[in-house]
Structures are given as structure tokens and as C-alpha cells.
């Protein structure tokens, strides 16, 4: 074990629900303080904050309401974390969305369902899924260099996706953001050796989180008879292993490597998390494949819906 989270402190964006909430909960259970940064907390997240918010006990959880598209609020997130915990050791810029109708390639700015302004010069999906992780990573590195040393390793764990290896006609902006996360993580690999800052990522398959379960338009492509869900807790286990270990097992729940194949961990490592774990290579990678936890069997329904949008007269032309 190269690093223990016991007695450390972390910032996790998007931890009001889903994978990031599971990760925050796991860190707290292991004795790590956590600042949860999100727009709001779902009831299950509020319960965690209530459980770990007692000032006289450690670890502690602190909620900081944060719009991750606002760079001033990202800076404030670090300021509050320093005030509450002092030195920060772990940062997860995990907040993300999965191509909702309100910021979506096939529903362009200015069309009825889009909330992206016609002349706004930006997509909310890009701001949340790619620009926010990039800016948060910059802020994390600045904090680590100011406070840390090579003797106390620092970690930045990103949330990529199997979409970072695939193409998907129905979600091209989302796919682009996850390809971007993979490129960012690999580009920062050498910070591990030179600065003691390890930048890694998980690349989950189809995860049973509110990003899916609260959206019937996406949920319909999953066939419960043929497809398997990966749970947020399973992804969180691998995220913790990326921090605490120099090798990660290919079997979920076997992160001490007793049974499964072993994957070395260093800066730039990206681990795919389906119902098993594997390392995603930069070159000649076979891709996610149809492993359990990676498939959504009825994706053709969304493809047809997409072509249905394109068949409408005047597609992409804003209504005046």
C-alpha cells in the first residue's frame, strides 16, 4: 500500500449523488475528511453529511454549494476546504452530466428544449464535463505545490467513461468530453514521478445512478434481461484502490490482489470498470467490448430517435 486515506482530506465535486457520493462515503468510512461540492444534496447525501458533520469528531463531511461552471465558486471550494481541513490530499472533479436534452448536440442552442443560449458561445455540457475538471485540476495542482511535498503523495482522480474509447451518434458531445478527460489524464502522467501528484481516472460502463434512473429517455435503452448494471459502490472501490495501492486487481472486491490479474497504477492510469476491471491503454487498446456492465442493448432506439429529429423540417434552426 503506497498511501492511506486515514487522516487525510479530500474535495469531491458532484458528490450529491451517484458515483461521487459513493466515493465520498467510502473515504469518510476510511477516516478521510471530505468537502462535498455540488448544487444540492439528494436525501441519501444529506444523511451522510449529517452523520459526519460533528465539529468535534473526525473524519468530517462539509457541504459547499457549488456551481462547477463558475470558476469563482471552484476557487471558493478550495478556500473553504483549506479553512475546514487545512492541507488537501485528494481531489476528484467528478461532477458530470450525460447529454440531457437541455444541453445536447441534437437539440442545438436556440431550439426549444435547449437551455444553451443561441449566442452564448458555450455548451453547458462542455463546461460541466470537461472545462470544470480541467480548471479544478489546475487549482488542485496549485494547492498541492503550495502545501505538499514528494513525501506526502497527492491524488487527482477523474471520472472518464467507456465513452472515452467508443463513439456514440446519440451523445457526441458527451463522448468528446470523455475522450478529453482521457487525454488530460495521460498528459499529466509525469507529475507523479516529478512532483508526487498522481493523476488517474476510472472509466465506468453502464452505472446505476440518477444520471440513468431519473431519465426515462435513457433508461429505455437498457434491457434488464441482457444488460448488467455496474453499481456506484463498485466504481468507488476502484477509485479508492487507485489512491491507496500500486497495483489494482481485475476483480471487483478483490482490490488487495488475492485472486485476479494485477494492473500497475501510476500517473496516467485509466481503469475501465465494468463487472471486472482492466487497464485502458493509450495505443492498440481493444476497447471496452461487450463485457458485462458495458452494454446497453437497445441503443438503436436512441439512434432512430436521433434520425427522427434530423428528419424534421428546419432541424437546428432556432425559432425566432
Explain the layout of strands and helices.
Elements: E1 9-13, H1 18-29, E2 33-38, H2 43-51, E3 61-65, H3 71-85, E4 90-92, H4 124-147, E5 154-159, H5 172-187, H6 191-195, E6 197-204, H7 210-213, H8 216-219, H9 232-244, E7 247-249, E8 262-264, E9 270-273, E10 277-279, H10 299-310
Parallel strand pairs: 1-2, 1-4, 2-3, 4-5, 5-6, 6-9
Antiparallel strand pairs: 7-8, 9-10
Short summary:
The chain is an alpha/beta fold and 320 residues long. The protein is 36% helix and 14% strand.
How would you describe this structure to a colleague?
- This protein is α/β, with parallel strands linked by helices and 320 residues long.
- It contains 10 helices and 10 strands.
- The protein has helices spanning 18-29, 43-51, 71-85, 124-147, 172-187, 191-195, 210-213, 216-219, 232-244, 299-310; strands at residues 9-13, 33-38, 61-65, 90-92, 154-159, 197-204, 247-249, 262-264, 270-273, 277-279.
- Strands 3-2-1-4-5-6-9-10 form an 8-stranded mixed sheet, with helices on both faces. It has a two-stranded antiparallel sheet with strand order 7-8.
- Helix 2 (43-51) links the parallel strand 2 (33-38) and strand 3.
- It is globular.
Amino acid at each position: 500500500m503506497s498511501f492511506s486515506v486515514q487522516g487525510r482530506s479530500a474535495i469531491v465535486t458532484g458528490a450529491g449523488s451517484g458515483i461521487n457520493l459513493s466515493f465520498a462515503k467510502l473515504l469518510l468510512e476510511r477516516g478521510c475528511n471530505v468537502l462535498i461540492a455540488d448544487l444540492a444534496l439528494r436525501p441519501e447525501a444529506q444523511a451522510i453529511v449529517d452523520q459526519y458533520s460533528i465539529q468535534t469528531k473526525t473524519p468530517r463531511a462539509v457541504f459547499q454549494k457549488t456551481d462547477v461552471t463558475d470558476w469563482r465558486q471552484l476557487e471558493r471550494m478550495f478556500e473553504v476546504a483549506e479553512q475546514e481541513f487545512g492541507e488537501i490530499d485528494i481531489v476528484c472533479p467528478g461532477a458530470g452530466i450525460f447529454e440531457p436534452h437541455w444541453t445536447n448536440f441534437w437539440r442545438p442552442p436556440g431550439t426549444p428544449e435547449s437551455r444553451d443560449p443561441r449566442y452564448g458561445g458555450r455548451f453547458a455540457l462542455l463546461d460541466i464535463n470537461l472545462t470544470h475538471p480541467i480548471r479544478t485540476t489546475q487549482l488542485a495542482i496549485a494547492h498541492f505545490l503550495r502545501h505538499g511535498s514528494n513525501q506526502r503523495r497527492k491524488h487527482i482522480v477523474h471520472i472518464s467513461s467507456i465513452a472515452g474509447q467508443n463513439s456514440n451518434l446519440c451523445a457526441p458531445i458527451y463522448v468528446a468530453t470523455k475522450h478529453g478527460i482521457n487525454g488530460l489524464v495521460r498528459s499529466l502522467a509525469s507529475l507523479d514521478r516529478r512532483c508526487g501528484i498522481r493523476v488517474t481516472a476510472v472509466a465506468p460502463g453502464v452505472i446505476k445512478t440518477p444520471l440513468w434512473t431519473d431519465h426515462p429517455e435513457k433508461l429505455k435503452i437498457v434491457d434488464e434481461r441482457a444488460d448488467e448494471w455496474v453499481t456506484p459502490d463498485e466504481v468507488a472501490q476502484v477509485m479508492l484502490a487507485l489512491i491507496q495501492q500500486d497495483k489494482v486487481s481485475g476483480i471487483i472486491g478483490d482490490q488487495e490482489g488475492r485472486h485476479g490479474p494485477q494492473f500497475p497504477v501510476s500517473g496516467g492510469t485509466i481503469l475501465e470498470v465494468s463487472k471486472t476491471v482492466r487497464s485502458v491503454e493509450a495505443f492498440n487498446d481493444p476497447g471496452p467490448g461487450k463485457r458485462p456492465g458495458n452494454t446497453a442493448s437497445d441503443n438503436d432506439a436512441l439512434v432512430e430517435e436521433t434520425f427522427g429529429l434530423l428528419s424534421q423540417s428546419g432541424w437546428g434552426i432556432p425559432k425566432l
